[in-house]
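FW: tagging you since you asked about this chain on Friday. Here's the raw sequence from the shared folder, copied in full. Didn't touch anything.
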Amino acid sequence: MLVKTFQAASMAEALRMVKAELGPDAMILSTKKEKTGGLFGFFSKQVYRVTAAIDPVRKPAPSAPVPPAYREQQVRERTAKEDLENSMLAPLARELRELRERVEALSRREEPARQEPETGLPQMAAAQEAGISLNNIPRGDLEEIKKLLLNTLAKSQEGGGARTIQWPNAEQSAAEGQTGAEILPEDSPLAQELSRNGISTDLIRKILDTLATLPVEGGSQTVRSRLGETFGRLIKFAGTLKLRKNSPRIIALVGPTGVGKTTTTAKLAAMYALNRGNKVALITMDIFRVGAVEQLKTYSRIMGIPLEVASTPKELEKAVEKHAACDLIFVDTAGRSHKDKEKLDEMKNFLDNKIPIEVYLCLSATTKDRELEEILSRFSIFQISKVVFTKIDESESLGNMINLLMKDNLQIAYFTTGQRVPEDIEVATSAKLAELILRGAPNE
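HL: got it, structure written out here
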């Protein structure tokens, strides 16, 4: 028996390697997910190991029938890409069918109409019903139209790869007499994708209306790029931190428990210290959660960044003064339930001092709309400067982010998309937000 272990960045890729080298009859002996490289889990990468075997002599046994439960799972696992593709083809197919039926109706009624030239009533009724005039349309032309419609309809219903969604340019739209509202109806594929993400109906309408007013320059553009430009007009994006000349920018991260503030603080420190070469210091106020200080100490030691612990407002002031020569100081705070008003007031008093601290609110992308609104309302006592959305990778849909940002006119600073430090964080941009919203859509 031949036994071999395969390693890949994803389980699907590892299984493809097994099939390619050992064939479809290979038997999976074990699967394992683990992290490799790095130090203390820092900068490590996740890999999948699959051990498989095959008997090169024995004739493989006939494959067992696929269980119904597995078949159902395969159906459920159809990608959002396929769903969106089908939703794009359905309206086109429906319109072509309707037009074909109208042409066929005209063809059937055309001959009797010619036999009654005095009144012309059948001909007028058919034209009125179809919305097309039969005047001066020869029968041969009608047959050609029918053939063209049938061929086009057949092509639209054929399977295949992902379609390209393109925007008509200004000349095409003018020639076809189309306005932005006609190009982007509320039942369009884009509107359906926005709705699937959980964006509220009134905001979808606002997004489509804004998108329809954008100028189209130089030919066709993708849905993703146009949507990104639209988000850029409707949502505030903070961009990269700008440094001060004579004093550090001090940023405190606040938020509910479990949203990943400590990891996000470490990611921000690594982004600006390791990737951009800025002088950074860390301060932690999270002395209540078991292991929180030790976790940040480990990160600071690996990155070579100083860390201070502050348990009182006075200690916070001293820590800031100690590192006044830094470009950036990131402050990690203790997680607080938005329902615990007493603890929130206590933290507010802690941060209310002569130090110019910018407060960033950390929110999880997995949180529901109503709870996000409640969290924002309770944490608004901190005079929130910007928001950071964490756990993007754990959320199936991101409409809750759009709803909150647009309704409350918030400024977004960063997205985090995993646990790796510093890889899984990036500056929030309108283009990236559009990419995240359309991540299940076909390639445009």
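FW: The chain is about 45% helix and 15% strand.
HL: agreed, and Residues 80-114 form the longest helix (35 residues).
FW: great, closing this out.
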